[in-house]
Amino acid sequence: VPFGFEDIAPHEKTERVGAVFRSVARRYDIMNDVMSFGQHRLWKDLFVGRVLPRAGESILDLAGGTGDIAFRMARSGAEVVVSDINPDMLAVGRERAARRGLDHLRWVEANAETLTPFADSAFDAVTIAFGIRNVTDIPAALRAIHRVLKFGGRFYCLEFSQISLPLVADIYRGYSRRVVPGAGALIARDRASYKYLVESIERFPDQDAFSAMIRDAGFGQVRAQPLLGGLVVIHSGWKS
Ligand code: SAM
Fold first, then answer.
1. Which of 86, 107, 234 for mutating ligand 1's site (highest number of atoms within 8 Å of CB)?
2. How far, CA to CA in Å, does 123 sit from each of 24, 57, 108, 235?
3. Is 149 a residue whose pLDDT tops 60?
4. How many other CB atoms are found less than 10 A from the CB of residue 184?
5. Which residues bind S-adenosyl-L-methionine (predicted)?
6. Domain limits of the chain?
7. pLDDT band at 7 (very low <50, low <70, confident <90, very high)
8. Is the Cβ–Cβ distance between 129 and 47 less than 8 Å?
9. Distance 82 CA to ligand 1 centre (A)
């Protein structure tokens, strides 16, 4: 399957992203460890540290996949709902939760662009980690997130971004273009899906452009906190 995402219809991008995560679901967690050299665990810890979930809060983790963010947030005693468009990713997440004895999480299949299962002003916080770049209509997703947040509620997004130091950016680009699809072929037996993941990172808007999109959806106090020179960025905003 060619991954020329600029040239395809929106519903086709959604279908291809669905195929990618259906294909990699069972190997998703091990691939994250291999490709990030275990670093994704640290980024996720830092991210949840910023979200600062509290007991009694109601928090929605979007594109929650196999549950990494939700498991970390659930330790606080917050009520966490994990949502993802892909039932295969959710199925792996449910099995992992059962093994950890985390039986109080809710798992809901939903498209981040509409969030139809969720009422207006339902959540104290909404999180999305390494998910927003896979969404076809990002402005629609940001508006839906704004809708389901309570007034005063907060939005946090963890995503790959553009590295600010040119030399480091070149090294990273070389690594991701040459090594990641090969590792995907070896470990997940799926080169094309990992080629897509690399391309989707390269095409995602930079910090300023994405911050502007968050503001356009109605959020205030929009901030971007780069980690590792901008390889990964935590974006946040408040519904006021
Ligand atoms: N948040 C998890 C983590 O950090 O490990 C999973 C991230 S995984 C790279 C991206 C997830 O986004 C996949 O589980 C995929 O199914 C989900 N996804 C893609 N498009 C989506 C959409 N429109 N609505 C909700 N989830 C979506």
1. 86
2. 30, 8, 14, 18
3. yes
4. 25
5. 66, 84, 111-112
6. 5-161+205-238
7. low
8. yes
9. 11
pLDDT exceeds cutoff 90 at 51: yes
More confident residue, 106 or 6: 106
Which residue(s) pair with 193 in the sheet? none
For the Cβ of 68 lying below 6 angstroms from any atom of ligand 1, the answer is yes
d(C-alpha 73, C-alpha 52), whole Å: 8
- For ligand 1, say whether the CB of 17 is within 6 Å of any of its atoms: yes
**Is it the case that residue 112 has pLDDT exceeding 70?**
yes
Total Cβ atoms within 10 A of residue 224 = 18
Q: How far is Cα 131 from Cα 224, in angstroms, rounded to an integer?
A: 16
Judged against a pLDDT cut of 70, whether residue 151 lies above it is answered with yes
Superfamily of domain 5-161+205-238: Vaccinia Virus protein VP39 (3.40.50.150)
Report whether residue 61 contacts ligand 1, using a CB cutoff of 6 Å.
Answer: no
Is 111 annotated as ligand-binding? yes
pLDDT band (50, 70, 90) for residue 203 = confident
Ligand 1 centroid–CA 48 distance in Å is 17
Rounded Cα–Cα distance for residues 126 and 78 (Å): 12
Is the minimum distance from the CB of 127 to ligand 1 under 6 angstroms?
Answer: no
CA of 194 to the centre of ligand 1 (A): 14
- List pLDDT tens digits, range 165-202: 888 888 888 888 988 888 888 888 888 888 888 888 88
